[in-house]
Design a protein that fits this description.
- It is globular, with a radius of gyration of 20 Å.
- The protein has a domain of about 240 residues: Rossmann fold, CATH 3.40.50.
- The protein is α/β, with parallel strands linked by helices.
- Helix 6 links the parallel strand 5 and strand 6.
- It starts with a strand and ends in a 5-residue tail after the last helix.
């Protein structure tokens, strides 16, 4: 079996669902169920004995040690993280605790567990750390895409905390020999994404006749990766990645945020037209930019393609169509995830940004 941390979140839940679609190996899913962790993402596994859910914090060393001792996983995949840049600007403490201290505690417990494994099991064990392209900082329009050797230049409390966790992962491999793997991915999108991120926020606001907030001039460029493609990449890295190596995972889909918003509006005009005939792009509202907003991210995925044979199956056009269809077909999930706490956050973050 494998231990997955943060498996009730967006990427973690998609990974678990995809895993069980093609494998019977059990998963121990440790998640603290903070605002973005949602067991409804895994409702289809409620009676599935292959999935064992444990509510808990990766900062809890005793819990981690007990889980490793009891279940004896052959691998750990660490999705657990605070991940929203805006929240990190307003509330950085939780990002430091989960992303840095939590990763450290997880590594410490894992190191002790790995040291005691039998020789063959020790050789086969893997610790896969899921990280972000934001650790590399921001690119100008003419700079080459981030490769695995790009200098770390994080610009937000979120990206700084993830950069620190990446450095801890590397240190535990170099110092103690722990067989770690790191993936740095570009912006994910797809089913089950918590609606504070751009794509689900735009879809949900459009359908509820609310403003579609776009930061600054909307020309911030991101590389967009369909979450199911990311899950395949993680499985491939776990299966064949070389311990100590980092693999960048991108979608080869660089697009400005404003183009993303217009694409969503256009597709919704066709898939779910408004009764009064208005176009959704009439709801677009430009708001004050976030502090320190990185201008461009771009991922060079040549290494994972060359060494492990992975490349994305979805184009942005096919992936965004599937994503919008999912949100249209899963309105009960959308309604349930929009708790009072979520609405309060959206109001706080955007209310005073209107230009």
């Amino acid at each position: 079996m494998i231990l997955v941390t943060g498996g009730a979140g967006f990427i973690g839940a998609n990974f678990i669902l995809d895993w069980f679609a093609q494998a019977d190996e059990e998963i121990i899913n440790l998640d603290n169920l903070t605002y973005a962790g949602n067991l409804e993402n895994l409702a289809s596994l409620k009676e599935d004995k292959r999935h064992v859910f444990i509510k808990g914090d990766i900062c809890d060393s005793s819990l981690i040690i007990n889980l490793l001792t009891k279940f004896k996983p052959r691998a750990i995949i660490n999705f657990a993280a605070e991940s929203h840049v805006d929240r990190s600007i307003e509330e950085p403490d939780s990002f430091i605790q989960t992303n840095i201290v939590g990763t450290f505690r997880l590594l410490e417990a894992t190191q002790g567990y790995w040291d005691e494994l039998e020789k063959n099991k020790k050789k086969e064990f893997r610790f896969l750390h899921v990280s972000t392209d934001e650790v590399y900082g921001s690119l100008s329009s003419k700079e080459k895409a981030f490769d695995e050797n790009h200098r770390y230049e994080p610009n937000s409390p979120y990206s700084a905390s993830k950069a620190a966790s990446d450095h801890l992962i590397r240190a535990y491999h170099k110092t103690y020999g722990l067989p770690v793997l790191t993936t740095n991915c570009s912006n994910n999108y797809g089913p089950y994404q918590f609606p504070e991120k751009l794509i689900p926020l735009i879809i949900i606001n459009a359908l509820t006749n609310k403003p579609l907030p776009v930061y600054g001039d909307g020309q911030q460029i991101r590389d967009w990766l369909y979450v199911k493609d990311h899950c395949v990449a993680i499985q491939r890295v776990l299966e064949a990645g070389v311990p100590g190596e980092t693999y960048n995972v991108g979608g080869w889909n660089e697009k400005p945020n404003i183009d993303i918003v217009h694409t969503i509006c256009s597709l919704l005009d066709t898939l779910s037209p408004q009764i009064d005939g208005r176009n959704y792009n009439e709801q677009i509202t430009f708001v004050t930019d976030r502090p320190g907003h990185d201008r461009r991210y771009a991922i060079n995925s040549n290494k994972i393609k060359r060494d492990l044979g992975w490349e994305p199956a979805e184009t942005f056009e096919t992936g965004i169509h599937k994503t919008i269809k999912w949100y249209l077909d899963n309105q009960s999930w959308v309604q349930n995830v929009q708790s009072g706490a979520y609405r309060e956050w959206i109001d706080k973050n955007y209310k005073e940004r209107i230009l």
